[in-house]
Design a protein that fits this description.
With 222 residues, the chain is an alpha/beta fold. Helices cover 36% and strands 16% of the residues. The protein has one domain (2-212): Glycerol-3-phosphate (1)-acyltransferase. It is built from seven helices and seven strands. Helix 1 runs parallel beside helix 5 and helix 2 (20-36) crosses helix 3. 42% of the residues are buried.
Length: 222
């Protein structure tokens, strides 16, 4: 995955600037998420318009990154850490690179991916991460320190939590989902370890996002 990381590094050193392909994908997804999904967004003003930002959220559905992108689009583009296996498909790899996403090898302490994300924070970007590392649907998973390490890597980074609910219902056609994204700020404690920070953020998010059941189409996990 080194080649994918290099492509991302070259394409992404653009700070807060929203990339054209990202805007296009968000525009195409907006009718599904906002109209069909009856999206409700709460606390969007917690997402700063500029400056290094780490956005952490729960992960219950394959649709979560799309829902988060549409909900956050009025304020920021999200440069998300996404599982590296998605880059195995050349067309998808091109799309993800053009959208400014960052491949990460899950569960392996991918220092190269974290370094790429830190570079984006240094350039003033909003970096998105799912602290659970994979789809959990509320099951208790081992927290990873990566999200916390990003939060403390660059001075003045703001940490925002996003609580996504209803996304598992997008795949339950013809039943219409009712999507909701709630944002809130997380204050940093400089004496806290990155792992403790990740655990605290995840606990705060999961307090607002109870466990959910998977639809048949999503029962395979991620």
């Amino acid at each position: 995955m080194r080649r994918a990381h290099r492509v991302v590094d070259d394409a992404l050193v653009s700070g807060d600037r929203s990339l054209p392909v990202y805007r296009l994908v968000v525009a195409l997804a907006t009718p599904i998420v906002r109209w069909w999904g009856r999206l409700e967004v709460v606390g969007l003003d917690c997402v700063p318009l500029t400056g290094p930002t780490v956005l952490m959220g729960n992960h219950d559905s394959h649709w979560d990154p799309v829902v988060a992108a549409v909900a956050t689009a009025p304020r920021r583009q999200i440069r998300a850490l996404a599982k590296a296996s998605l880059w195995r498909s050349r067309p998808l790899a091109w799309l993800l690179n053009a959208m400014g996403q960052i491949p990460i090898e899950r569960g392996r302490g991918d220092t190269e991916a974290l370094a790429a994300a830190i570079e984006q924070l240094r350039a003033g970007a909003c970096v998105g991460v799912f602290p659970e590392g994979t789809i959990s649907r509320g099951a208790t998973l081992r927290a990873h320190s990566g999200a916390g390490r990003l939060a403390v890597a660059i001075p003045d980074t703001q940490v925002v939590c996003g609580v996504l609910t209803g996304s598992v219902d997008i795949a339950r056609f013809p039943k219409r989902p009712r999507l909701r994204v709630e944002y809130f700020e997380l204050q940093l404690d400089r004496e806290e370890t990155p792992l403790a920070l990740t655990r605290r953020a995840l606990a705060a998010i999961r307090a607002k996002a109870p466990p959910v059941a998977a639809s048949r189409r999503e029962s395979g996990g991620a």
